[in-house]
Structure formats: structure tokens, C-alpha cells
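Priority: medium. Attachment 1 of 2:
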């Protein structure tokens, strides 16, 4: 079982390196072209890299992050999460009558933000 865990760890670490490599390639193209959407792609790859890193940390493969109880920080993170949740709901309604690929992308980013803020809140719980 431990060997299987090491194989998974190695696979995830290799995936993180691939994300970094792709980020660099995309940055070069973005710099040459100036296309804004390519900059968004770099951010998406950074998020993908972070999700793998978090997986390694939270599965014990890379060490668990210690919680730091702080009621004020917990409340603030919950407040921000609720703002993002409400914004995402409003944007989703708007999208129904105003189709937009860019808004769809923004909604995906808001979904990620909402989840990340929930994790921040849990960290300080």
C-alpha cells in the first residue's frame, strides 16, 4: 500500500511539473501576442497546479496543513465566501439571458473562489 502511495505521489508531482512547463510556454506566447485570454490560461494552469499541491498536502502524501483557530479570520472568510456565492448566483441568472463565453469562464473562476474561501474559513475554524 505504501508503494502505491509513492507511485501516486510521483504521478502528482510529475503533473505539477507539467503544469509549470505549460505555464511557461503559454507565458511566452502571451508575451508575444498580448492576447488577454492567454493570460487567463496561465492563471488556470496555476490553479490546476495548486489543486495538485493541495491534494498532496491533504491526503497526507505531502504533509497536512495545521489549522489555526481564529474566530475573526473565520468570520471574514465566510463573509467573503458568501459575497462570491451571491455574485456567482447573480451572474448565473444574467447568463441565462445574456450568453457569453467570457461570463461562463468568470463563473468557473467564481466557483473556484467560493471553494477556496470555504477552505480558508475551515483553516481558521
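Attachment 2 of 2:
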Amino acid at each position: 500500500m505504501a508503494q502505491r502511495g509513492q507511485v501516486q505521489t510521483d504521478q502528482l508531482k510529475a503533473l505539477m511539473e507539467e503544469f509549470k512547463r505549460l505555464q511557461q510556454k503559454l507565458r511566452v506566447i502571451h508575451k508575444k501576442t498580448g492576447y488577454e485570454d492567454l493570460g487567463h490560461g496561465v492563471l488556470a494552469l496555476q490553479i490546476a497546479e495548486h489543486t495538485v499541491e493541495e491534494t498532496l498536502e491533504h491526503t497526507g502524501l505531502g504533509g497536512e496543513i495545521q489549522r489555526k483557530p481564529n474566530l475573526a479570520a473565520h468570520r471574514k472568510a465566510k463573509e467573503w465566501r458568501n459575497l462570491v456565492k451571491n455574485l456567482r448566483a447573480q451572474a448565473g441568472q444574467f447568463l441565462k439571458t445574456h450568453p457569453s463565453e467570457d461570463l461562463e469562464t468568470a463563473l468557473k473562476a467564481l466557483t473556484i473562489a467560493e471553494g477556496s474561501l470555504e477552505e480558508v474559513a475551515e483553516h481558521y475554524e
